[in-house]
Amino acid sequence: MNGEKVASGVKHADNIAPAIYGGITLIRSIFPLDIVQLSGPPLFVTVVHPQIEVRTADARQILRKEVQLKSAIRQWGNIAGLVAGLLKQDYALIGRSLEDVIIEPVRSILIPGFDDVKSRSRQAGALGGGISGSGPSIFMLSEKESTANEVEKLMQDVYSRLGIDFKTYVTSISYDGVRLLPVTAHQP
Length: 188
Known about the structure:
The chain is an alpha+beta fold. The protein folds into 2 domains: about 1-40, no CATH class; about 40-170, GHMP kinase, C-terminal domain (Alpha-Beta Plaits, 2-Layer Sandwich). The protein is about 40% helix and about 20% strand. The protein has 8 helices and 6 strands; from the N terminus they run H-H-E-E-E-H-H-H-H-H-E-E-H-E. It has helices spanning about 1-10, 15-20, 55-60, 70-90, 90-95, 105, 115-125, 145-160; strands at about 25-30, 35-40, 45-50, 130, 140, 165-170. The longest helix is centred in the middle third of the chain and has 20 residues, at about 70-90. The relative contact order is 0.19.
């Protein structure tokens, strides 16, 4: 978490907790640190990483300092819905809840092609997705691997048409956290 503070100016566990625990984690609190492991159904993840720079400090600076109560209530409902959808293994609820009404509308302007990727991914059957961290990566969740692969193709199409170099990845969420691998002795 101290490394995150150096990199982004804020001490958080958003990246390190799922890396250590595996799967999906809820960071309920930083002070004191309270990490909750969440179970969930099998999910496939498609990520596009446009080869552009979005500095975390810049992405943080453009955020609104105050949030309207109606937006906060809607966002809290989406977060609660996402957690419930994961725990109930309800793909439809997960999809309805993957909507960020506070940060994404502001930060998405820093990522060319974002709206096109998101709308086309949903049309192709993705449950939904958004900006990974402060960007520029965009992630989409899918119930089926075939959908995730189709989403990858359309992501590639969007960025090829924009003339922006990119990398894409398709994977599944691993619920295995950090584990020790056996050490094998090398014979001379």
